[in-house]
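Hi Prof. W.,

I finally got the Cytochrome P450 prediction working! I wasn't sure whether to trim anything, so I left the full sequence exactly as given:
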Amino acid sequence: MNAQDRSLGSPIRDHTTKIAVPPGPSMVFFLMRSRALTDSNRIFGVFREIVERWGPVSSSRSGLRGRTYFVADYVVADAIFRGHDTFTKYPHHTADLAKLQAMIGKGMLATHTDAEWASHRKSMARAFSKAATMNNFGEIAIRHVDALLDDAMAAGVHVNNISELAMRLSGRIMSDILAPDHMFADWNFLRIKRILDAAILDFHRFDFSRRARGYKSALRAQASLLIETAAAGNSNEGLLRKMMIDEPDWQTNPAARERLLDRAINLIVAGYETTATTLNWITHLLAVNTDIQEVLREEVQSGLYGDGRHPAAFDENTLLRRVISEAMRLYTVLWFNIRYVTQEVIIEGHRFERGARVMLLPFIANRNGSIYANPDAFDPNRYLSAEPRPLFPFGNGPRVCIGRALAELEMQTFVVGTLKRFRLSMACAPKAIGGVLLQPNQDVKVRLTPLM
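And this is what came out:
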């Protein structure tokens, strides 16, 4: 039975018999690897060792009565992602939540309960639906993609810093969505990126809250600029003007202003860093795999995808979408996810105790050799067979990414615009490292050769 067949069933069932919890590493194991766990270059090795020694589902005592599970099994992780009633994000104020709030405040991404998340989501879901994204933000994305790539075109053959280009693009798009006609997105977002590059690598350190202050301060400054820009504008366009309606006394009430800032910060974070990082990996993989690049370019030049907004660009079976999916499988930017067990359950013979913490490891599950043939290879054609798409790169259930359509639009328009203009070739060999995100260990640089 393959993974696709198994996942069609319901692997979560109520606890009826006493099945032992899966074994796993002891506290001594983690103490001996404490340096590696706080080293962004070595942390993946620790989790791979856990999987190699104890299997793809293991558990460990945490504290006197707590338990943490490590899940790198594709089918079990898929069931947990789908088990919204049994596995929740933050049932109470946890250390994980405290770290997130230290970075980005208490907005949508760092809410305490699923009910709070639903309240935030309700106010923003319509703005980021697929139809609304295409109607309201499509022209914004195209305008900035064209402007940045036309500038690159004018430079002729050159090595381009894709990390900076992608960050500038995501920063411009999100700033225009929040506060149109801003004049300060590019370099502010690049500064935030540099601070973030250092800060997120410290995420697993005990004193992360202190280390994250510079990043949070930079985000607050950028959010404040955007809020003041929106307030001074004559137009009612932009999401911040709509958010101000929800906080009518934000200018006089410090608590209301703080809520507005938190919401703005969360949208900035959600709208630029993960998308820009994914664009790094997509561009790098196309530069390495020139055969796939050429086939995709032929489709782009045929007009199949238009400018990246054509319905074919959203068709999961097209090469464009398969390339994006394969990049997200190989380099799952959200490389770990945390859930908490609300009721004891058994999944595929593994017992999960109520109250336990579950660390999902999609960066391992998405390279599982029993699920994917030649799992470390970049092969967009694998999805034409029975191989499944990567595990929920945009999340799933009540906390699914509300900006998914915007991220997809940005990725599609960038890839289409780039391949229309340039031939890509390698200029560096980045490796993946782990902090809050799975990011390259250096800026991704690609040689761009304009097409004649």
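Residues 254-288 form the longest helix (35 residues). Does that look reasonable to you?

Thanks,
D.
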